Amino acid sequence: MGQTGARNFLRDDGIKRWTAAVFLRSSSQAGEKDGPAFKQIVWRSRCGVAAPGLVEPCLGVRSTSVTENLLQPSHPINDPQTQEEAVLISRVLSGEHELFYELIKPCERAAFMTAFSLLKNEADAEEAVQEAVVKAYKALGGFRRESKFSTWLIQITLNEARMRLRRSRAEYETSLDGLVEDADGDYTPAALTDWREIPSEALERKELREILRQAVDALPQKYREVLIVRDVQEMSIVEAAELLGITAGMVKTRLFRARLLLQKMLALELRAWRKVYAKG
Amino acid sequence: MKLDCKHVWREVSNYIDGDIDPSVRLEVEQHLAHCRHCAAILDSTRNIVYLIADERTFALPVGFSDRLRARLASEQEKHKRSGG
Fold first, then answer.
1. Residues 6+ apart with CB under 8 A from A10
2. Which of B11, B35, B42, B45 to mutate to probe the A interface, most A CBs <10 Å?
3. Is residue B43 within 8 Å of residue A189, measured between CB atoms?
4. Predicted model pTM
5. pLDDT in tens for each of the 280 residues of chain A?
6. How high is the ipTM of this complex?
7. Hey, which residues 7-46 in chain B have their CB within 8 Å of chain A?
8. Cα gap A73→A272, rounded to integer Å
């Protein structure tokens, strides 16, 4: 069982608490290994954003194509998904242009979340994804097939979103990020003495989704990026570090801070919300 | 060495991910067994992480895929016309 793959939480239904977390290479592998009962609790399969080497992401505003120097993959990937991608890419490059969307579709949500984690606005994130997809389409001939297409697309999207953010963002947010990062200070969680689980079914309530999204939006960018990449896109620590151009240790530290900040922002509010929800 | 509450908070994230040294994990669990405060912090953090991770929390905007396809088709058409 791969220890560096996607994370999946295990749920102990007997006591309705999240009781363990494991690393699994994929949901299908988990199913083979642990049987149907285990399949049910595997978080979900994901858009394969596995792990070729990436060069450091472009951080500056660039007027030329950001795809030019995005990837220098260091590890050939020969899994079936990549081989299917390779066939599709060859067909697109041979003139079947309409097939390009088949490459995009499995990872469009991951691309959107990547952009949204930076831009914090659906419309801006959608524009960034569209732009990134067009750039990927135009640069497809130069795509080095040692890496996964999805990783390449996510990297282009990240760069596109960062470029847009730099164009538009006020300086104060950058300095705020810096303060939080450097302070290493108060990560005291919200004080509680008990917690009653909010089940995932409650997410059918729009107001709960809004509460969660606003809290994520309120995180400093560097924490939000890591949180989205790890907890929403379910990348491994190594993948997240490569994508964001930071060390694995920084990924863990930022994720720890992001999660505790969320707990601090949300725990009491969610507990109050739960009481109302339970009545309603 | 017994962990105090602050040490446990620092391990909560790694504990949730299962990315924790077995000896530290044991100490954390021993602490959690008698500290309701830290147990509630772990439970709430894990619950929040799970809710954030659910696809419903950050769903794609309605019509996202259609608009993406349309934009792509438009670019492909331009590309074709320009002889690309």
1. A18, A19, A20, A21, A22, A41
2. B45
3. no
4. 0.70
5. 333 333 434 333 322 223 223 222 233 333 333 333 332 233 333 333 322 222 223 222 222 232 333 333 344 456 777 778 888 898 998 988 889 999 999 999 999 999 998 888 889 999 999 999 999 999 998 887 766 888 889 999 999 999 998 887 654 454 444 444 444 555 789 988 889 999 999 999 999 999 999 999 899 989 999 999 999 888 889 888 988 889 999 999 999 999 999 999 999 999 888 888 766 5
6. 0.88
7. 9-10, 12-19, 36-37, 40-41, 43-46
8. 48
